[in-house]
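Worked example 3 (structure in, sequence out).
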């Protein structure tokens, strides 16, 4: 099964989930398929003191979770802080190059490894106006991170967090209606997903360059995202486009 096919299958699975338990079960299966042992999908908050429902699904060791919550690491976790400075997935081994690590940060990372959690890969989920979040996959301590499945992990992590956001909106008193795209916005996003620049899209659609820029700006505002790549993720998740659309030429 190709990367696109497996990502599409996972997208179908999570779109059908209606509870956090079902989403956790889907993540458990895909985590094993990706070659990892652990997953953690979470908002970056102190989970015990969050003022509103916060998402956290994981299969980390109980002792590590107890320590994590007792020390309110949801906000200060160096993995979480590193995810705030990028929009793409990163290996934890890259964190020292992304943020300045304090002695306390190094202690936290070492303690996690002592609890059996080795190198991992984190996909940021930073939506303007919302609490930051992420989806992480990790190996057991002492197991090297393989690059083979990281592109698929990037897609899976983004889709999983969108599924969690949907479940969170259902139970949130501040829930808002899903955004609606115009036909032209959808066309522009589709070409973005195919890897085309704004200028290339304008030539393909026969419109002004500034028109494409405006359509994509409005689409980003509708979804509340800042990056072009996240437009495709959101549009795939809500069914505005499909992998079949992307692969058609």
């Amino acid at each position: 099964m190709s990367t696109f096919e497996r990502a599409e299958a996972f997208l179908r699975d999570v779109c059908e989930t209606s509870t956090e338990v079902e989403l956790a079960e889907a993540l458990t299966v895909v985590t094993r398929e990706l070659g990892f042992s652990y997953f953690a999908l979470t908002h970056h908050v102190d989970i015990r003191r969050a003022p509103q429902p916060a998402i956290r699904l994981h299969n980390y060791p109980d002792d590590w979770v107890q320590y994590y919550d007792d020390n309110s690491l949801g906000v200060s976790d160096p993995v979480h802080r590193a995810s705030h400075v990028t929009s793409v997935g990163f290996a934890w081994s890259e964190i020292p190059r992304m943020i300045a690590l304090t002695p306390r940060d190094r202690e936290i990372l070492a303690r996690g490894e002592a609890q059996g959690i080795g190198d991992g890969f984190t996909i940021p989920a930073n939506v303007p106006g919302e609490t930051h979040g992420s989806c992480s996959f990790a190996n057991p301590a002492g197991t090297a991170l393989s690059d083979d499945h990281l592109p698929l992990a990037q897609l899976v992590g983004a889709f999983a967090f969108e599924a969690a956001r949907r479940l969170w909106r259902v139970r949130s008193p501040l829930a808002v209606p899903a955004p609606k795209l115009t036909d032209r916005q959808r066309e522009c996003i589709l070409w973005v997903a195919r890897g085309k620049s704004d200028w290339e899209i304008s030539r393909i659609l026969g419109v002004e360059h500034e028109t494409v820029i405006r359509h994509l700006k409005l689409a980003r505002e509708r979804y509340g995202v800042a990056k072009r790549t996240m437009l495709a993720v959101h549009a795939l998740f809500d069914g505005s486009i499909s992998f079949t659309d992307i692969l058609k030429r």
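Notes: The chain has 13 helices and five strands. The mean pLDDT is 86.
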